[in-house]
Amino acid sequence: MKDLRIVFMGTPDFAVTILKHLVENHYNIVGVITAADKPAGRGRKLNESAVKKYALSKEITILQPTNLKNQGFQQELENLKADLQIVVAFRMLPKAVWKMPKLGTFNLHASLLPSYRGAAPIHWAIINGETKTGVTTFFIDDKIDTGEIILQKEISIDNDETVGSLHDKLMFLGADLVTKTVDLISEGNVTTKKQPELEEKSAPKLNPENTKINWTHSLDTIYNQIRGLNPFPAAWTSIKNNDEEITAKIYAVRKEIQKHKFNTGKIIASKKELKVAIKDGFLIIDEIKISGKKKMDAKSLLNGYTFSEDAEML
Is 100 helix (H, G, I), strand (E, B) or coil? Predict the structure, then answer.
C-alpha cells in the first residue's frame, strides 16, 4: 500500500528526520504543510523551515498557510486528495483539516502519552528526573494530545542524558514508529486505545520563568533542570560579581555531594574549576556562556574572567 496518498505536516529538524524516513522508504508523500517563512538574523532575511528545505530538495508540493482555517488553503489541501495526514511538531489543526482524509490524521508525540502532553515533552521528562520516556502515535481529535493511541515505544533516559541527546534518540525512534503506524493503517489493522483520564505531568511551553535556576532547590533538581535544557534553550541565572549583575546560561555540569558551610549560590572559583554551593553539595560547571561572551568551557572562562570573593549566583 505504498501508493497511499500522504500529506505530511511539520516544521523543525525533528520532523525532517521522520519525513526523510518516509520518502526514503518510498511512501507516497503528495504534499508538505509547514510554517510560513520568517525573517531572521540581522539582515531579517526570510528563513525557511527545516521541513520546507528538505521538501524543496525532493520537489514535493509545499503549502505554507498562515491561517489553517483559511478557505483557500483548505481547498488547496483538499486538491492534494490525501488518504492520510501525518503531523509531527506542527500546530493545532482545525477540525475541518484533521477530518479531511478518509483514513484520518495521526500525530507523533515525543512522550508516553498521556504523560507530558504539550509543547516541550522531551525537556520536561529530563527536568522532572524521569528514567524513561518514549514516542506515541495517536489519531488527532479536537483537544491537544488527547486522541486515541495507535502505537507507543519506550526508551530509557540515562542519568547524564541531555535534551539534545534524548531529542535525537526519540527522533529516530519516532521515524520507525511512524512507518509502522502508516503500515497498520494502510492494511486496515489498526486497533486504538483510549488515553487514561489521569492527572498526568504536563509539558508546558518553556519561558524565562521556568528556565531560570532556583539555587535553593536540591542538587538533583538543579542538575536535572540544567541537563533538561542543554543545549536549547539553556538554563539561566543571574550572577552578582562585585557591583555588577550579569546573566549567564549554564550548559554542562557535574554533581558533587558534600557537606559544607557555604551560603547557597556562593561561587567558588579556582584557576581550573568553577563550582556553586548548593544545600546538599556543589554543582561543578563545565560549560557556561556569560552575557557578552561566547559559550566556553569553565577553564577557558577562568583564564580571562575573575570572580570576586563574594560572587554568587542569584
Answer: coil
CATH 2.40.50.140 matches 5-202: no
User: Is 150 in a helix, a strand, or coil?
Assistant: strand
164, three cell numbers: 539534545
Dump pLDDT digits (tens) for 22-40: 999 999 999 999 999 988 7
Binning pLDDT at 50, 70 and 90, where does residue 44 land?
A: low
Whether a cis peptide bond, with omega within 30° of 0, leads into 101 is no
pLDDT band of residue 2 (cuts 50, 70, 90) is low
Grid coordinates in use for 142?
479536537
Task: List, in order, residues 6 or more apart from 72 with CB less than 8 Å away.
Answer: none
159: Cβ contacts below 8 Å, ≥ 6 apart: none
CATH T-level fold of 219-313: Methionyl-tRNA Fmet Formyltransferase; Chain A, domain 2 (3.10.25)
Partners of 117 in the β-ladder: 202
Residue written as grid cell 481529535: 141
Q: Give the C-alpha separation, 85 to 73, whole Å.
A: 15
Q: Mind listing the pLDDT tens digit for each residue in 119-168? A: 999 999 999 999 999 999 999 999 999 999 999 999 999 999 999 999 99
Residue 66: count other Cβ atoms within 10 Å of its Cβ.
8
Using CA atoms in the order 77, 80, 86, 88, what is the torsion angle rounded to 10 degrees? -60
What sign does the CA torsion over 248, 249, 253, 255 have?
positive
The residues spanned by each domain of the chain are: 5-202, 219-313
